Amino acid sequence: MRVAIASGKGGTGKTTVATNLAWVAAQQEKSVVYLDCDVEEPNGQIFLKPIADWRKPVTVAVPKVDPVVCDLCGQCGDICQFSAIVCVGQKVLVFPELCHSCGGCDLVCPLSAITEVPRGIATVMAGHTGSIRYFQGLLNIGEAMSPPVIRAVKAEAPEAELVIVDAPPGTACPVVEAVRGCDHVLLVTEPTPFGLHDLELALETVQSLEIPCEVVINRAGLNGSATEEFCRRKGVEVVAEFPDSRRVAEAYSRGELASEGDPEIRDLFRSLLTHIEDST
Amino acid sequence: MKQLVVISGKGGTGKTSLVASFASLAERAVLADCDVDAADLHLVVQSSLVSRNDFWGGKRALIDSDRCTDCGICEDLCRFDAIRSDSSTFSVDPITCEGCGVCAWFCAEDAIDLVNTIDGEWYLSETRLGPMVHARLKAAGENSGKLVSLLRTEAREAARNRNIDLVIIDGAPGIGCPVIASITGADLVLVVTEPTLSGLHDLERVIRLTKHFGVPAMIVVNRYDINQKIAMQAEKHAQKLGAGLVGRVRYDPAVTQAQIQGLSVVEHSSNGAAADITEVWENLQRAFIEEELSVSEG
């Protein structure tokens, strides 16, 4: 079973939910794989503290032009929709960071003057922590495109009883890449106007992908019941509510798993886990 | 004209609450909400729409089933698995399609068109705190970086038209394409961080990003009293990376209360976090003036 933890708004508690769920599942001796797909800012490791045992660069294919063979016909520039390759004067210029690796220039070149070469944009790392197998992607600083890195993390993941995908915030292509192919999505929100507004956007995104989803309310009790009412109206179940607590916030600040030190929080995560298992 | 960008690396550190307060404290400024896939600034500033515009983001392939002979070349060539074939009828999954046009180029029957698509909307609004440009990217939308660039151009245009010399940009979390698009060419980036190990980790990466693109950066530590030890660590570390401290803002439930009431923190109260934010704003202005001096001296 593959469960994605997503949110719309950042900082609502995705990583808290994802890491604690992984931890309580591992305590029950289930096989758990954790995929940190927030490759711009992966934080799962801070809480799960995996021992790294494997890493591999993530590369994308970019064109390399052989100037001896090239006759400057310009077709590569014509097919490229991203201005990543252009023929100007006596030269073909390549802008690797704009390239989407579609392979069009290579296919279209009548003289086969173009070859595709790998360009590193990130690293995938794996490790273990107890019985949890941990994977994360880490986008190189200055690189714009995270979807290929998210794809690479997901491609490395072995099957397990529980695969947890910690998704990036937002509602755009990185989130889509992370949650695609998951059996289930948990949307973590906080009961504030910002939280509710972004929940609505995130819900729209997940529903457009036709993946079943449910809502987790973090820092519950901040602002009445607007979030619960919204979920009822949309027919989405609220499956867990975690109280707003300075103690939990402080534990988080130190990189501690709330479930480990707090039996009440642990019970909440155990019943959330049971609920997810029963519903899939 | 000055462009101040507020970003954070980690989400939920308080970017939007700070931007709304800065807008209240600035005499005149244009606001640009560049967190285009989860834009929230309009919830605080209650905007009234001046114009609504389509955002033509990218292109998508479209197969004309009348001309398609089901040869399957498009499916073979597409690297994004965006071509769907059910019982030998081919179609394009608009969410997966990157708009690269390879299928259209190589279709032997000329049955595939590359069409411009609307990936969202952008708006110009008036608010009690000044003009604002903002946007709504379509659910599961693409081209957020392009939309951010468009918003920044429109914000500068709005500022020029009104003789306003400050643009305040609310950025997205992370370090990817919308963030890069929001900081390039800006005058100052303010990184909002929180004193948690996650915040510390993300702070380092986002400061390195600003250095990578050569944009001056400073930091503000929000909710610093949640963990003063990590707060100090963050400040020291940022300083080492070349981003000085503008100020600290204490943890204050009034920040959430202000949001619930649709007010900026400094409109909602004048002590606690509001006082801290006011001080941060004053320090920021000083930083701008100092930067100007160093530019004119240099």
Provide an overview of this structure:
The complex is a heterodimer of chains A (280) and B (298). By secondary structure, chain A is of the alpha/beta class. Chain A has helices at 14-27, 44-48, 75-79, 104-108, 147-156, 173-179, 193-208, 226-234, 246-253, 258-261, 263-279, and strands at 2-6, 32-36, 51-65, 85-88, 91-94, 114-129, 132-139, 162-166, 184-189, 213-220, 238-243. In chain A, β4 and β5 form a beta hairpin. In chain A, α1 packs across α11 (263-279) and α5 runs parallel beside α6 (173-179). The mean pLDDT of chain A is 95. With 298 residues, chain B is α/β, with parallel strands linked by helices. Helices cover 39% and strands 27% of the residues of chain B. Chain B has helices at residues 15-25, 41-45, 73-77, 102-106, 144-161, 177-183, 197-212, 228-241, 254-260, 265-268, 273-297; strands at residues 2-7, 30-33, 48-63, 83-86, 89-92, 112-127, 130-137, 166-170, 188-193, 217-222, 244-249. A nine-stranded mixed β-sheet of chain B has the order 3-6-7-2-8-1-9-10-11, with helices on both faces. In chain B, α1 crosses α11, α5 runs parallel beside α6 and α7 (197-212) runs parallel beside α8. The mean pLDDT of chain B is 94. Classes of the chains: A alpha/beta (280), B alpha/beta (298). At the A-B interface, α4, α6, α7 and α9 of A face α4, α6, α7 and α9 of B.
Fraction in helix of chain B: 25-40%
Strand elements of chain B, count: 11
Looking at the chains present, what oligomeric state does this protein adopt? Answer: heterodimer
- The number of helical runs of chain A is 11
> Mean pLDDT score of chain A, rounded?
95
**CA gyration radius of chain A, whole angstroms:** 22 Å
The side-by-side strand order for the widest beta sheet of chain A comes to 3-6-7-2-8-1-9-10-11
Keywords:
heterodimer; A: alpha/beta; 11 helices; 11 strands; 36% helix; 29% strand; B: 298 residues; 9-stranded mixed β-sheet; two-stranded antiparallel ribbon
